[in-house]
Amino acid sequence: MTTVAPLVEVDGLVKHFPGDRGPWPLARRRRPVRAVDGVSLRIAAGRTLGLVGESGCGKSTVGRSILRLIEPDAGRVVLDGVDVLACRPRELRALRRRMQIVFQDPYGSLNPRMTVRQALREPLVIHHLARGPEIDRRIAGLLEEVGLDAAFADSYPHELSGGQRQRVGIARALSVEPSFLVLDEPVSALDVSVQAQVLNLLNELQQRRKLTYLFIAHDLAVVRHSADEVAVMYLGKIVEQGPAETLYRAPRHPYTASLLSAVPVPDPRVSRQRIVLQGDVPSPANPPPGCPFHPRCPHPSKNDRCRTEPPALRVVGPDQLAACHFAEEPM
Amino acid sequence: MNVRAWLALLGAIAVALAAVGEARRLAARGSRGRRFFRHATASGGLFVLAFFTTVAVAAPLVAPYPPSSMPEIVALRDAPPSLAHPLGTDLYSRDVWSRLVYGARVSLGIGALAMLVALTVGAAAGAVAGYARRWVDPVLMRLVDVGLSIPRIFVLLMAVALWERLPVSALVLVIGLTGWFGTSRLVRAEVLSLREREFVAAARALGARPARIILRHVLPNVAAPLIVSAALGIGSVMLLEASLSFLGIGVPSPVPSWGNMIADGKDQLATAPWTSLFPGLAIAVVVMALTAVGDALRDALDPGRETA
Questions:
Q1: Is A264 on the interface with B (CB under 8 A)?
Q2: Nearest CA-CA partner of B251 in B144, B109, B132
Q3: Is B201 on the interface with A (CB under 8 A)?
Q4: What is the mean pLDDT of chain A?
Q5: Residue A203 predicted with pLDDT over 60
Q6: Which of A18, A252, A299, A321 is 20 to 30 A removed from B145 (C-alpha atoms)?
Q7: Does B77 touch chain A (CB under 8 A)?
Q8: Spatial separation of the C-alpha atoms in residues B131 and A64, rounded to whole Å
Q9: Is the model more confident about A103 or about B266?
Q10: Is the residue at B76 inside a domain?
Q11: Mutate to test the interface with A, among B145, B191, B199 (most CBs of A within 10 A)
Q12: pLDDT value at position A204?
């Protein structure tokens, strides 16, 4: 692994959404949902960590907890030496200049009643980054940086296409000059042709601005070209983590292997074995005992141990971690 | 009625027509405006509102006589409509048209101001309840339940019993402060769904304080249903003011309001129907106009058709 101190460190992050009682004071509490159950991550400055998993596995909750858009229940988040979770509101607001987020839905993430200019002006005003004519110069600069014509400044979101809106969302995140960006499925809602453009833009911005990314995605294909490291989540836990290249070449966890087998290969002559998982993701309110993946696991060595003993995330190769009792055995 | 008053009446009609024409011209530019005027009654409603607003503002010009002058208390009492008194005179020989004109000031003014009070309080309470949640939300909403369960007229009767002679400003406040409960529920429901939208999360991520989020991001998105409910609400406030004045606990008598004009004429309904008929018609026409405009606004501002 890299020897430099990581820019972002997450340790033992836990978020349980409490089961509420509904409107009745005497009703039994519903089971709490363990959305994130002890997640640890490290991201080196200027690098990209891909966080991959099915919907509902808690990957977005991890991203939002790091930014404290959701208050996690336990764990530690450190951004460049600052303990994010210990910040008071005033310190947190100052810290928000250093970490930002790009959302999945370009329709929901822009206020329909604000023009692009108003949306980009707001962060500059909140953090006193510019005043007077300087504001308009900054806005023009941001639009140019994300590849939008300055004429879009006075458009409303409904006048823009999905890709254009996502560029505005990126410009807004960049407006406060952050060093760390959470990309919460930034291209999942876009057309395939637009996806590539936005991914390229994100890569260029990373180079130019020396940004550090936490790239959340629900399939491994999207992060393949951008991530230096990849972590795979299942039911609130990381099940495999490692350098992107190793992980794609030799996945050690059967869940990673099945996700990889779903990545389309652009060559019709290549025949390959698809691992089709049985059943649905279990409810995070009621995870199965033992290995959380065992009811759907296609591993040939699966046995009673998987049903009773939860596997620890352990070192299985150079820089590679996996949470499987049989990580070393062939699949 | 003299030439000046007739000219002023024609002028008011002309101003109202011009206002409607200008509104139509502006509306034709956008899809919202076109949806508004697709309602057959929207133009008529707008004309009625513009006309009565003009008349209320320009009351001293439009009214041929001072509203409370009693020129010939014996000879001119309950005189039928004539050229000199186009809508007749009432029990005290006062000119009904002049009183109707000045009454428009009172009735429309109370309606609009009381609605403004209700809207402000309701929007604030609803936004705070919806955004803060925790304990604030249930406390405020139970308060609203209580408010909705107490008959409004009862609260108003109590206020009158306490003050004996209620000044008009106090009447506006009392009507406004008993009328915000429905609005706050509407706003809270909208805020509850808006606060989960990602642009609110984005604003928080950018470091915006709750006050900024509510004022800049949440409330502007509630404006459409709020405007519609206001347009419909003014009508009901006017009716309430009319019934209060009719009961003798609203606007005190020498000051004309459409409600107390009906009350003043109720004993001569058989012999001089014009004294009650015309203010009654005015209330009915204005409330219908408000309903028509409110319905058209509801369609025009429907956010579901934003992108259409």
A1: no
A2: B109
A3: yes
A4: 87
A5: yes
A6: A18
A7: no
A8: 19
A9: A103
A10: no
A11: B199
A12: 93
Tell me which chain A residues have a C-beta less than 8 angstroms from the C-beta of B197: 108
Quote the pLDDT of residue B34.
84
CA-nearest residue to A127 within chain B is: B207
- Which domain, by its residues, includes B140? 3-68+84-305
What's the pLDDT at A43?
92
Distance between CA atoms of A100 and A214, rounded to whole angstroms?
A: 10
**What pLDDT shows up at residue B303?**
54
pLDDT at residue A24 above 70?
no
Left (φ > 0), alpha (ψ -120 to 50) or beta: where does B273 sit? alpha
Contact call for residues A323 and A311 (beta carbons, < 8 A): yes
pLDDT digits (tens, 9 = 90+) for A59-117: 899 999 999 998 899 999 999 888 999 989 888 988 999 999 999 888 889 988 888 99
Specify burial of residue B280 (Cβ count, 10 A radius: 0-12, 13-18, 19+).
Answer: middle
Residue B209 sits in a domain whose CATH number is: 1.10.3720.10
From chain B, pick out residues whose CB is under 8 angstroms from the CB of A169: 202
Give B-chain residues touching A113 at CB under 8 angstroms. 220-221, 223
Residue A279 zone, left/alpha/beta (φ > 0; ψ -120 to 50; rest): left
Whether the CB-CB separation of A62 and A39 falls below 8 Å is answered with yes
> Is position B134 within any domain?
yes
Contact B206 A176 (CB under 8 A): yes
As a whole number of angstroms, the distance between CA A25 and CA A230 comes to 44
CA nearest neighbour of A100 among A211, A224, A238, A239: A211
B268 in a structural domain: yes
Chain A residues in contact with B217 by the CB 8 A cut-off are 111, 114
User: Looking at the predicted structure, is the pLDDT value of residue B37 above 90?
Assistant: no
Q: How far is CA A252 from the centre of its chain?
A: 21
User: pLDDT digit string (tens) for B284-301?
Assistant: 999 999 989 988 888 887
Number of domains in chain B: 1
In the numeric block, the tokens 């530690």 are attached to: A76
Residue of A nearest to B307 (CA): A158
Q: Do A112 and B207 touch (CB under 8 A)?
A: no
In one-letter notation, the amino acid at residue A295 is P
A112 vs B: CB within 8 A: yes
pLDDT at position A331 over 80:
no
In a domain, B74, yes or no: no
Say yes or no for a CB contact (<8 Å) between A100 and B220.
no
- Encoded amino acid at A254, one letter: P
